[in-house]
Amino acid sequence: MSDPTQRPIGRRTFLGIAGAAGVAAGCSPRAATQKVVPWIVPPEDIVPGVPLYYRTICRGCAAGCGVTARTREGRAVKLEGNPEDPIGAGALCARGQAELQALYHPERFKGPLRKGADGKLAPLAWDAAEDALAQAIAAARAKGPGRVRLLTRPEPGSAGALQRAFLAAAGARPEDRVVLDPLDPAPVRAASLALFGRAELPVLDLAGARTIVALGADLFETFGSPIEAARQLAEGRGRVGPERTRTIWVGPRLSLTGLTADRWVRVRSGGELPFALGVLRWLADPANAVPGLAPDAPALLRSLLALAPKDLAARAGVGEAEIAAVARELSRRRPSALAGPGPAAQGPDAAQLAAVVLLANHVLGNVGKTVLYGLDPLLDPPSPFTAVEALLRDAAAGQVDVLLVHHADPVGALPAALGAAAALDRVPLVATFALRPGPTTAHARLVLPDRHTLEAFGDVEPRRGVVNLGQPVMTPLADTREAAQVLLDVGARLPPATPPLPGGDVADWHDERVKALLAAAGSAADPDGALREARQRGGIWSDASGARVVP
């Protein structure tokens, strides 16, 4: 009788065993050595496997949305929107979701660096780095105003206030602080100032619009607050029947906004302006008998009747019928909204296009309904492009001794014709607060790595009545310091200034600032308790109404 354990091996069984043995022997990588380090005294608020949630802010773009950070064992693992934030209302865009990748980026600076005689960056201690910066600023201050400059991103909050106080202590002028935002719709600000006397960005209420026309404004990418636009559009499209929101994308390429639009009007490059003029010309034509236009519409649009619709259509690269169809829909499906131009349409005629868009909104009665003024806090608007040019021109001429670069990338973001790289090379000390290497850090002589937003305190006021608060959700990953803390430390090393720069720890300074904001909002009875509750909510919010504007 044969032994049942000695059964013949079939072909499939043999191949399976041979394949598994081959993978185990030669194809699988060797596992990395892992060490388990226990908490001798575990934190009271951390239980392994149980997540903790913190309210903070996102600085992935200028929208400054509030976020909820989920942490596990002391590390942030997921970001979502703060449902109490009036702007994001619990949602978060793709750039906000990607902030975790910026936090854990493998190329982040591990500590301060200084460029040596060999042109390479070498580590140094924080005290030595701050001493070097303080000595350079003191020497530049002795030469007179204009020798110390700061280039920064928009900081409508405590960071911007501290930067201005620091520059005043360093003997700098207000114009020595230049705010750079490559995606800022500056033509819209210029057009608002020219038409309504308010150099601000209007806030769009897309949920209340029945028809939305975007002329080069990537509503879901780079224009305004992308997540707010997406949320409002979803609300408008949730309605049924004639009240459902329709969107029309006008541009030469199919962007993300164009992909989600109901209709794409493909104009030639630079054709947004003649298209917008054609729409306004159609509205002004008495033959079309558009009812319900603004009372001053005839006087404002009378000069447009001299424009030939056929010529405008040819310049735009579309047919007259397409222009008429869009204008007819805007007039019949009100309230409507026109948006633009965004970065994709900021050519030589961008300011004129912005003016035509705002004028069309006014004529159709959209201003005050879907296009709201008076909500821009105007705390730290980007500087005019002429100010950026002047800074680079002075740097190239050797009139700048110390240039502080705070979360700005002039070499990578500005046109090469401006010569930003060559200008920075003429500055004796370029100090950057960048998180990781970039085109501008290659020209820096001192690197003072800032902490990521999820590792630092902060606040931002993206809209009037909305102050979103940030706090550390985890321990810093490297030997970094908050840029605000570096300014306080360097200011303490400078000769006494009038008014004096506040000293101490940036967390205490930020707490006092938030308490002052809470007191102004009517929460002065228990400052510490109000501060704790505001941090738990993630912000300080109050009702703000728009302003009535007329051209």
- How would you sum up the global shape? globular
Fraction of residues in β-strands: 5-15%
Termini separation comes to 106 Å
Number of strands: 19
Mean pLDDT: 89
Unreliable sequence segments: 22-31
> How many DSSP H or I helices?
19
Describe the biggest sheet? 7 strands, mixed
Oligomer: single chain
Radius of gyration: 28 Å
Descriptive notes:
- Strand 1 (52-57) and strand 2 form a beta hairpin.
- Strands 5-4-16-15-14-6-7 form a seven-stranded mixed beta sheet, with helices on both faces. It has a four-stranded parallel beta sheet with strand order 11-10-9-12.
- It is built from 19 helices and 19 strands.
- With 551 residues, it is an alpha/beta fold.
Characteristics:
alpha/beta; 15% strand; four-stranded parallel beta sheet; seven-stranded mixed beta sheet; globular; 551 residues
Task: Give a brief outline of the structure.
With 551 residues, this protein is of the alpha/beta class.
What is the element layout, followed by pairings?
Blueprint: H1 11-27, E1 52-57, E2 66-72, E3 75-81, H2 94-97, H3 99-103, E4 113-115, E5 121-123, H4 126-143, E6 148-152, H5 158-169, E7 177-179, H6 186-196, E8 203-204, E9 211-215, H7 226-237, E10 246-250, H8 256-260, E11 263-265, H9 272-284, H10 297-301, H11 309-316, H12 320-332, E12 336-339, H13 350-363, E13 371-372, H14 385-396, E14 402-406, H15 410-413, H16 420-425, E15 429-432, E16 446-447, E17 458-463, E18 466-470, H17 483-493, H18 506-520, H19 527-537, E19 539-541
Parallel strand pairs: 6-7, 6-14, 9-10, 9-12, 10-11, 14-15, 15-16
Antiparallel strand pairs: 1-2, 2-3, 4-5, 4-16, 8-13, 17-18, 18-19
Helix pairs in contact: 4-17, 5-17, 6-13, 9-11, 9-12, 9-13, 18-19
